[in-house]
Amino acid sequence: MLQNRAVAALLAGIVMLASCDTAVVNAQETGIHKIRHIIIIMQENRSFDSYFGTFPGADGIPMKNGIPTVAVPDPLTGKMVRPYHDTSDMNLGGPHNAVNAVADIDGGKMDGFIRESSRGREGLNKQGMKDFPPKLIVKTKRYLDVMGYHDYHEIPNYWTYARDYVLQDHMFEQIASWSFPSHLFMVSAWSARAEKPDDPMSCVSALDPPNRTDDDPTPFAWTDITYLLHKAGVSWACYLDYGVTGAALKRDEYLALHTATRDVGGFTAYVPSTWNILPGFVTVHQDSQITNIDPLTEFFAAAKAGTLPAVSWIIPNNKDSEHPTSLVSTGQAYVTNLINAIMKSPDWDSCAIFLAWDDWGGFYDHVVPPHVDSLGYGLRVPGIVISPYAKKGYIDHQTLSFDAYLKFIEDDFLGGQRIDPKTDGRPDSRPDVREDDPGLGNLIHDFDFSQPPRPPMILSPYHK
């Protein structure tokens, strides 16, 4: 009995010492290192003006006396169309490939949005919208919804997050193209094609790289951020909304993800392979990290248990993504549930949530994107930072792109190491180090690490 008590006392002492050590470590954390969990929530296809064009204090739609002073020509009528308040829950958007980005920007005139959208079936078929014949689109002028904007009436939770935390009004897509290359950039600071599947030095920049198909898996040979995270022993995960388990993601099977579906109220939900790109990176397989890609149920379990990894990406299914023609309200509810889970988590006091939309979706925006290299930037998208250390009611006017997310991860967990072929230990042929671009802002300015952690703000996902 005495021996058992002694063992119990010893174990209790060890636990106490461990607790004390943890408390000391937590107390010693300063600045950016107070953030031990970074969660990137990437939604789909919205421009900044389409969601926050009338947000007070932001660089929104130019107006005078509440009337927009900008307009875009409609080639079908010859008239000029101003941005307008769109109360619809379902939008069509417009084509948004690399060629459409060039046309929308139109040399800085920012006037090609309706012209691209009005191409009717040809443009809409690129987005899989075959249910909207050209005659119907022209008759109802649905092609004009690229000029529509939403506000707090349609997206009250997004506006609440922007009002109470940080709204970034100069966040640009990293590349002037569509979702697939944008997602490549999000985790690797580059979009490329590999001439030799396993040779990172054979890669060349690509605005519109070869799409992924079952017959042509096109492995991504260049270096991504998970290579650096794994080498440094930093945990990461990618959570798929209704995706399959990581154990099922063998290298020759990862493209089958788009067939991993779930019927949700009569709606077949799936995670497109063009959004779920980490299984395509050679490094993920070489480092045996493929099981870090999990279904969203694992995210909710980790949040509840307080075991979130250091870095997380959350990828939606088509129903929850806000990609036209998915409902705006459904996407907002999905994102709210994610944020609520993080705020209820024991990890909340050390979290930073970066919420963004991967490309502009053909929707109007009035700001000319900066030119940093042959690939970008692309058009402006909404960006929000939510954290117990985020500044309250702050609008960040810095020039940003998703490269800033990688920069923040690297500064927080990797001692400032960049995805740099000269220093990262895995050379590739990228032309520049995007995280070190002199024009790129720093997300550190969105935080006040001297303030005590702010309490959670739980919102109702649904609104009438």
What would you say about this model in short?
By secondary structure, the chain is an alpha/beta fold.
List keywords for this structure.
16% strand; nine-stranded mixed sheet; 464 residues; globular; disordered N terminus; alpha/beta; two-stranded antiparallel ribbon
As residue ranges, the low-confidence spans are 1-27, 121-133, 243-267
Tally of strands: 19
Distance between the termini: 64 Å
The proportion of strand residues reads 15-25%
Please, what is the average pLDDT?
86
Largest sheet: number of strands, sense, barrel closure: 9 strands, mixed
What structural category do the secondary elements indicate?
alpha/beta
What's the gyration radius in Å?
23 Å
Number of helices: 13
Helix content: 25-40%
Shape: globular
Secondary structure topology:
Blueprint: H1 2-28, E1 37-43, H2 48-52, E2 63-64, E3 67-68, E4 72-73, E5 80-81, E6 84-85, H3 98-105, H4 113-117, H5 121-125, H6 134-140, E7 148-149, H7 156-164, E8 166-172, H8 179-188, E9 192-194, E10 203-205, H9 225-231, E11 236-240, E12 261-264, E13 267-270, H10 282-286, E14 293-295, H11 296-305, E15 311-315, H12 328-343, E16 351-357, E17 380-386, E18 394-396, E19 400-401, H13 403-413
Parallel strand pairs: 1-15, 1-16, 6-7, 8-18, 8-19, 11-14, 11-15
Antiparallel strand pairs: 2-3, 4-5, 8-17, 9-10, 12-13, 16-17
What does this 3D model show about the protein?
This protein has 464 residues and is α/β, with parallel strands linked by helices. It is built from 13 helices and 19 strands. The strands form six sheets. Strands 1, 8, 11, 14, 15, 16, 17, 18 and 19 form a nine-stranded mixed β-sheet that branches. A hairpin with a 2-residue loop joins strand 2 and strand 3.
